[in-house]
Amino acid sequence: MLKEKVAIVTGGAQGIGQAIGFLLAKNGADIVIADINGDQAQQTAREIESSGRRSLAIQADISKFSEAEKVGKAVMDAFGRIDILVNNAGITRDNFFLKMKEEEWDSVISVNLKSVFNCSKAVIRYMSKQRSGRIINIASVVGQTGNIGQANYSASKAGIIGFTKTMAREFGSRGITVNAVAPGFIDTVMTRSLPEKAKEGFLKNIPLGRLGTPEEIAEAVLFLATDASRYITGQEINVNGGLYM
Ligand SMILES: NC(=O)c1ccc[n+]([C@@H]2O[C@H](COP(=O)([O-])OP(=O)(O)OC[C@H]3O[C@@H](n4cnc5c(N)ncnc54)[C@H](O)[C@@H]3O)[C@@H](O)[C@H]2O)c1
After folding, report:
1. Residues 141/244, Cβ–Cβ less than 8 Å
2. Contacts of residue 198, Cβ cutoff 8 Å, sequence gap at least 6
3. For residue 49, what are the contacts with CB-CB under 8 A and spacing of at least 6?
4. Cα angle 201-157-180, degrees, rounded to a multiple of 5
5. Ligand 1 centroid to 27 CA: how many Å?
6. What is the average per-residue pLDDT within 14-35?
7. What is the pLDDT of residue 190?
């Protein structure tokens, strides 16, 4: 389905991003993992290569404009094209608003939101020249509903949704689609650190009665990366077990 396509997955060394890389590779794409954790990125890239696709690990802090730019250039040097960008890297620095430090606000906004600007800037010229491209941004249910202790995180994710719609409008005429996937609560390192009580609380509100898996997010990303979704842009696909409708 994605043969000869080149995909960049930010934060693809582990968790949801890793599942996305594996699934896109399984469907024929070559995968670039751009992650701040270079060792883990290498390991994931090696696993993808052993499945028969080409893969490149790039250690980068994509919250920095110049590092994101370097990723774009390195991918063009290595593969000569960029077809798919999955803006997945993200962090949490939770705190009640009254206690939230400026650093906690700034770091979450930089890694979760500014990086989406940075990486989109790094690929958009190449995609425009190709007159085709897919940008898929990983948002969150929390950007839609808000969440106590996550003023920074929910603002970053709501920001991604506005950015997605604007980019879809600006680049539709160049054959580039821009969409978001909004996961609910997914079983990863990020949610494993939540207190049991909090987990029980939100499980009650999930009609499907369980957390999602990284693979279930990857399936939605795969759909948005393939030709099957060619008439879809500016949308947000909720993959949340019904938590938010
Ligand atoms: N886990 C969930 O329940 C959940 C729910 C909704 C949305 N999300 C979103 O899905 C995405 C992936 O989450 P996850 O649970 O897999 O998280 P994770 O912590 O397992 O993985 C995040 C990856 O991003 C990388 N990263 C962090 N800062 C970076 C930076 N500055 N530059 C480059 N890479 C960086 C990390 O090294 C890591 O490999 C995030 O955007 C997250 O907000 C997760």
Report:
1. yes
2. none
3. 55
4. 105
5. 22
6. 98
7. 77
pLDDT bucket at 196, cuts 50 / 70 / 90: confident
Q: At 35, which helix (H) or strand (E)?
A: strand 30-35
Answer whether 191 contacts ligand 1 (Cβ < 6 A): yes
Q: Which domains does the chain possess?
A: 6-237 (3.40.50.720)
Query: Is 153 an active-site residue?
Result: yes
What is the model's pLDDT at position 201? 83
- Both tokens of 122, joined, read 């790094």
Whether ligand 1 lies within 6 angstroms of the CB of 36 is answered as: yes
Across the chain, what does the average pLDDT equal?
A: 97
Residue 61 CA neighbour count, 13 Å, CB half: 6
Helix (H) or strand (E) holding 202: helix 196-203
Percentage with pLDDT > 70 across the chain: 100
Rounded to whole angstroms, how far apart are CA atoms 83 and 176? 9
Please report the pLDDT score of residue 198 as a whole number.
Answer: 79
- Its pTM stands at 0.98
Whether 14 is in the pocket of ligand 1, judged by its Cβ within 6 Å, is yes
